[in-house]
């Protein structure tokens, strides 16, 4: 991650969150849901790009942790705008999330995520749960069929 990028320990606003997901081709979230949900994040980061002068800084990536803050955590909403992928932003964000978990999660806490990139999350010790268990989901609303974009959580 070069000097034009800054990692900020906070989630973006709801409008930016929804726009980032759309830009990356991820399944949509409602603006109302984002406004309600983002403040409940256990921890989150965003990556800003650009300079303080001129056009200002633009949010180009984010990731967050949700859960109960003690025994269960989920890494979610890991997104980098396509025009900024390949710059190490996802790695920098995961490093920060894992550092938070290493400091704050209790012994024997359970941390999960829905991986849609093969070979990325394993470097932080994540491994598939199958065959011992399998992830499941249920989507609320939308087209009513439950969706087919599980990896785009």
Structure description:
The protein is α+β, with helices and mostly antiparallel strands. The protein has a single domain, classed as 3-Layer(aba) Sandwich (Aminopeptidase). It contains 3 helices and 5 strands. A hairpin with a 4-residue loop joins strand 3 and strand 4. The protein is globular and about 50 Å long. It starts with a strand and ends in a 40-residue tail after the last strand. The C terminus is likely disordered.
List the helices and strands and how they pair.
Layout: E1 5-8, H1 14-23, H2 31-37, E2 43-50, E3 57-67, E4 72-80, H3 89-104, E5 110-113
Parallel strand pairs: 4-5
Antiparallel strand pairs: 1-2, 2-3, 3-4
Helix pairs in contact: 1-2
Number of separate domains? 1
- Helical content (DSSP H or I, runs of 4+): 10-25%
Largest sheet: 5 strands, mixed
Mean pLDDT: 90
Give the N-terminus to C-terminus distance in angstroms: 24 Å
Low-confidence stretches: 144-152
Q: Which structural class best describes the helix and strand composition?
A: alpha+beta
Radius of gyration over C-alpha positions, nearest whole angstrom? 16 Å
CATH class: Alpha Beta
Write out the CATH superfamily name. Answer: Gcn5-related N-acetyltransferase (GNAT)
Overall geometry: globular
Strand order of the largest sheet: 1-2-3-4-5
Per CATH, the architecture is 3-Layer(aba) Sandwich
How much of the sequence lies in strands comes to 15-25%
CATH topology: Aminopeptidase
The number of helical runs is 3
N-to-C series of helices and strands: EHHEEEHE
Keywords: Transferase
Organism: Halogeometricum borinquense
Pfam families: Acetyltransf_7
GO molecular function: acyltransferase activity, transferring groups other than amino-acyl groups
